């Protein structure tokens, strides 16, 4: 390993390799603090050729590589699986915006660019990158694609893979696949870009991408609503969707418990409504039409929902600052829950119509097996993705509660399976959910995935131990 580190330093130059204990420590710990597996070293190539050279050296030595972007994974997908025996390859230095095609609405970008920087680059060119997640300030494009991140605009524009037109990928043997195509139609065999999107770095290292952009909305409007029941939430969603589906960019759900935690633990947070409700949604409408009257659309639908008893109260943002304040509440749900104590996170999805059954059955299960535990559910209800997080009872021992994590998640997964859903909607598998993946998918499906892995990475050096059990 020492010889390999010296060879890596020789080809990557100054700043290309970190191996001092203090320098590499942050690369071995995930955002949630669930794992602390320090790598042997961290390599930081400055270009695709450097990535390929580093991969070839590691492959020749049989040393495993863990690709890492902003290290914002919620399931331990970007940290080493074991301490001291793996190399983390950081894409942080590869942060160039290569080209923006305003006519074709495409963006070619390196993997180390943060999602927020990509959004701003598109905006500066008069275009819109329709991808938004809570960690966008630190999450990097390579990791966002590798995990097929979802986020707030999924119901309008799809997940990340739906925005990927082309990729550049370094394969486990060090070869470079240049698939940086800008084509909206390219029906020439297997669509390899979809293979690497969502593979969590287990098949190769994404070094650059061509992303599909959208026209910049001419106007947008946000509304924070209080509702009496989860059925009323779905009723409001259907009304907005049926009124103008193209204008419905986001429909974000927050349970009463989740918002209460945010108001208690986030400095400066306040309820946007005059009175509390059992459930809340944050709605955002946007349009590229010059004559689009979003305010009239929203007021019409809200009035109908109020008359039908599906709405308690609503506040429409009257300024950009107020719109951002609404979104700040939603985007800091995870931070508030982290401050409230130990939590067991369930990133699940079910058919939209099954969301009420999911929440009711999960609440009953928690009351029976984990009395006092707080179900702080929130998420992207328009696509059926609920972050069904469970916070320890107040005053309980955090370590003892966390020790029940696998058992609790399995009970949630049993409900999810019965409702025809998925135990991982947008966070992926990583290290945390391998045990569920091993039994969740059928034998044929797992076998096909393993055959793909073996064909592309026969030595199993690319992010080993993620998705699949070792």
From TrEMBL:
Keywords: FAD, Flavoprotein. Pfam families: FAD-oxidase_C, FAD_binding_4. One of its GO terms (biological process) is respiratory electron transport chain. Gene3D superfamilies: 3.30.465.10, 3.30.70.2190, 3.30.70.2740, Uridine Diphospho-n-acetylenolpyruvylglucosamine Reductase, domain 2 (3.30.43.10), Vanillyl-alcohol Oxidase, Chain A, domain 4 (1.10.45.10). PROSITE patterns: FAD_PCMH. Its cofactor is FAD. Residues 35-216 form the FAD-binding PCMH-type domain. It comes from the Bacteria. GO terms for molecular function: catalytic activity; FAD binding. Belongs to the FAD-binding oxidoreductase/transferase type 4 family. This is FAD-binding oxidoreductase. It comes from Acidiphilium acidophilum (Thiobacillus acidophilus).
